[in-house]
Amino acid sequence: MGIRFAGWGVGLGERVVTNDDLSTSLDTSDEWISERTGIRERRIGGSASELGIVAARAALADAGINAEDIDLVLLSTTTGDRLIPGTAPTIAAALGIKCGALDLNAACSGFMYGVAVARGMIATGSRRVLLIGAENLTRWVDWDDRATAVLFGDGAGAVVIEASDDDAVLSLNLGADGTLADLIRCDHGGYIWMDGREVFRRAVRVVVDSSERALAEAGITIDQVDLLLAHQANLRILHAVADRLGLPHEKIVVSLDKYGNTSSASIPLAVDQARNNHQLETGKIALMTGFGGGMTWASAVVRWS
Ligand code: ACO
Question: What is the pLDDT of residue 172?
Fold first, then answer.
């Protein structure tokens, strides 16, 4: 038994904050932020549950199904509404359902980890999983720290994953190296901190390795890949990865310019943009890859259906 993506939806923070807006209160500039990151603006506002509910409703409508048809609500988030309990039950309750509901945290790789978990649930008998990536990262940002404040945004994306005879996922691998846990951290009561340069260096390496493994396991060459749907942290990371893989930059989906780094939400937000631009027609091959705190990473080759 395989899976297919049956419907997608997004939810975005209400307030658009541009680089120029940030440079009124921080020693930074649109030029620095755009050149070093590719980010031009970000959305701010909304809790993980508020944003997740909007995305979830849109995904259910796009799939043309009722909430009662869902067997599991799986929420990838690093910024749930509270420490205890998880936020997935809150989202399920807003949808009026009492199926299983749980949070998972694999930082910015969480959405791809969620695809893996959903696929496993479907392999063992679930019919449909509602996977949501929702983040309210700006709550954990130190607005006086220009090194991190310019990077993050709030948002959510959701997908209905359902059982299918043909598996859209041709290969998928997950990885983690907990010895690198200190590279990106947010301790209880603290702010997000990261060693940006080291994360950059490590991210390029692990994304290239896991992408090459996913391609080899799928029996797909880089020339056959139509789109790169990667975690949106930094445009220079996306370019470095594409260059090392031998993928032309035109095949990279870039949505970080509008949303910044939205962690678990960034891949579904990129998918939404690609779908709106008619870049993800049936049969297209997408390389999907996430990386982030942990360190964690995850890559998959997907044939769009
Ligand atoms: N505006 C102006 N100057 C700045 C800013 C800013 N917003 N931020 C830093 N600088 C300065 C620094 O102080 C430094 O100045 P100095 O040379 O006088 O000391 C200079 O710019 C260079 O700083 P670096 O940190 O070396 O800049 P770099 O080119 O590495 O860019 C960045 C920083 C954008 C954070 C980059 O390293 C990056 O994107 N790293 C990866 C982050 C990432 O991928 N995170 C993903 C996971 S996030 C998660 O899991 C939640």
Answer: 98
Ligand 1 centroid from CA 251, angstroms: 25
- Residue 229 in contact with residue 274, Cβ under 8 Å? yes
Q: Which pLDDT score is estimated for 189? A: 84
52, 79 contact by CB (below 8 A): no
Residues of the chain where predicted confidence (pLDDT) is lower than 50: none
Task: State yes or no: is 108 an active-site residue.
Answer: yes
Based on the fold, state whether residues 158 and 173 are members of the same structural domain: no
CATH number at residue 130: 3.40.47.10
Cβ neighbours for 106, distance < 8 A, ≥ 6 positions apart: 76, 112, 113, 176, 290, 292, 294, 296, 298
End of a domain among 125, 149, 164?
164
Active-site pick, 19, 136, 231, 234? 231
48-60 per-position pLDDT tens digit: 999 999 999 999 9
Please tell me the total count of domains within the chain.
2
231 assigned to active site: yes
> For the whole model, what pTM was predicted?
0.97
- The answer on 271 and 224 residing in a single domain is yes
Q: Does one domain contain both 158 and 174?
A: no
Q: Domain limits at 13?
A: 2-164
Q: What are residue 192's phi and psi, to 5 degrees? A: -65, 130
